[in-house]
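WARN no homologs supplied; continuing
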Amino acid sequence: MKGKTWWVLAACLVFAFSAVFLFAYTHEQDDVSGPVTTQWCNGNQNNGAPCANTVTWNLNPTASNVDTTGGTTLIQTLENSFASWQQASLNSQSLVNLTISQGSTSETQTTPNADDCTNIIGFTDSSSDFSTGTIAFTEIATSFSAQPNQYSCNGSGSYTCPLPSCIVDSDIEFNPTVTFSTATTTPEDDFDLQAIATHEIGHFLGMDHSGLASSIMFAFGDLGGVPQRTLSVDDAVGIGSIYPSSNFASLTGTLSGTITMGGSGIFAAHVVVMGAQSGLAVTDGLTNTDGTYSIFVEPGQYNVVVLPLAGLYDISNYGGWACGYEENGPPCCDPSSSGCTAAALSPPTNYSGKFN
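OK structure emitted
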């Protein structure tokens, strides 16, 4: 893409009674010299300054569908959710350099607005399409092109992004037709607000979906019970790789390699990292268009399993990966040309791995 560009995507959490998929941390991405990970720099108005990894969120406090009986307040619950990402760690050592602050409240903004550079969290949006099963969604606007690039905030002036891709607006909307709870044990007909909010805030900060059932970024949620409100290793390493602390490199290692079939690199293969002793999936990622991958992991011993991206959960479940990294294209593309074919490409069913 050339020049000044707004790229808007929606990432949502959907309801499922039970589902287990083996995916792990991936980043929201833009197709510019890479593609590249998109992230916050200096809040909404970067002005070309070196990145300080800061972001501000605002709340529409009208939330009649939030039940705080036996739990924390709405604001405290959201603060706890943001803190989970800001305080991501391994072995009690911080992985993240990220400053998050709460701005003013707004009762007038009830729907996402991608170009106002105000990051609203709301519960009253009745105009958006909450398709069947959608619990909440996050709409993200990014500015990307050859760096530095400029963008405008609703006519209030032009600003400069010093990165290949900056997040400049992010709005979270919770489905107004379902009930969210802040109680320690979630009522059987409610969704846990902190768990859902933490997932959506992951999108807000630049994380795409995960398929590890132990991950906050798992793409499915459920009603009732004792919720998972904390980050997994997969989540923590994923956010740290976007906003690394000064000691991130010393706390993690990297698994990298190339997945090939018939001598050619395979696009969007699942590279699943399993603990050598536990046999559990710890993290994974998707291969690039040339079949290469690089995954941050906690130091240890691992086995690597490669799987095709096929079945119920496919490339279309990722915000910035479909159609050769074109957000709005269907998953029917030849990654060598980023052009759509007449039908979806058949996923390969066997691989040979070349690891380094």
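The chain has two domains: 6-242, 252-355.
OK
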